[in-house]
Specification:
0% strand, single chain, Helix Hairpins, mainly alpha
């Protein structure tokens, strides 16, 4: 089913209301334009028929006028020839032609009224169609602009995310380097403590040897050697 049910609906339509209610304004604009173009074709076709009928009526009026004039001339001739019976017949034929002329003229007047209405409707339809096309163009441009802004925003957000990830990666690498430097100091400190620990052990053995000598005791290693 179409958007408009008749020509007057198209002419009286509120494009803003139709587009504002549409889920997809750009698609609705295309449908409206298509229906307006179809309606304009139909109205023009009707106008062509009325214009053709006008020409036909005008030709008929001209032909009947010539016929009426011919019967008038024949009636005059019959009077000159003293043939009143023929004159009456010619005048009756002239009257019938005149009646047909009057009928054709009344129809022609009606056709002219319809042509005037069609001309007005066509003008309004063309104006409405122009408005719809301009609306469609504006909607298309707005849609393109919005899409472009969305793409730009997405790219900016992607760049920000990438920048943030890069900054975090750099911070983590810097932290790893600092921790590694601390670990390096700790490793060196462990080796130094081990060396001092060894020195401490030697002094302890010397002290034990002094005490054994004072007590006249032998070390466990000396006893084992003596038993061998």
């Amino acid at each position: 089913m179409g958007i408009f049910s008749r020509t007057r609906d198209v002419i009286d339509s509120n494009l803003s209301a139709l587009l504002n209610k549409a889920d997809d304004p750009e698609k609705m604009a295309r449908l409206i334009i298509q229906e307006m173009e179809d309606t304009l074709v139909e109205v023009r076709s009707t106008a062509v028929r009325f214009l053709a009928r006008k020409k036909e009526l005008q030709r008929a009026i001209d032909t009947l006028g010539a016929e009426a004039a011919d019967w008038e001339a024949k009636a005059e001739l019959a009077i000159r020839k003293d043939r009143e019976d023929l004159a009456r017949g010619a005048l009756a034929a002239k009257r019938r032609a005149g009646e047909r002329i009057d009928e054709a003229r009344r129809e022609l007047a009606s056709v002219d009224v319809e042509i005037g209405k069609l001309d007005e409707d066509i003008g309004k339809l063309r104006s409405k169609l122009s408005e719809a096309r301009q609306r469609q163009k504006n909607i298309h441009l707005r849609t393109q602009s919005a899409s472009s802004r969305i793409k730009v925003r997405e790219q900016i957000d992607d760049k920000r995310t990438a920048t943030a990830r890069t900054a975090l990666d750099q911070a983590e690498r810097a932290a790893d380097e600092l921790e590694s430097r601390v670990d390096a100091f700790e490793l060196g400190a462990d080796r130094l403590r081990d060396e001092f620990a060894k020195l401490g052990d030697d002094k302890l053995e010397d002290e034990l040897a002094r005490l054994r000598a004072k007590a006249g005791k032998q070390s466990p290693m000396d006893k084992d050697k003596a038993q061998e």
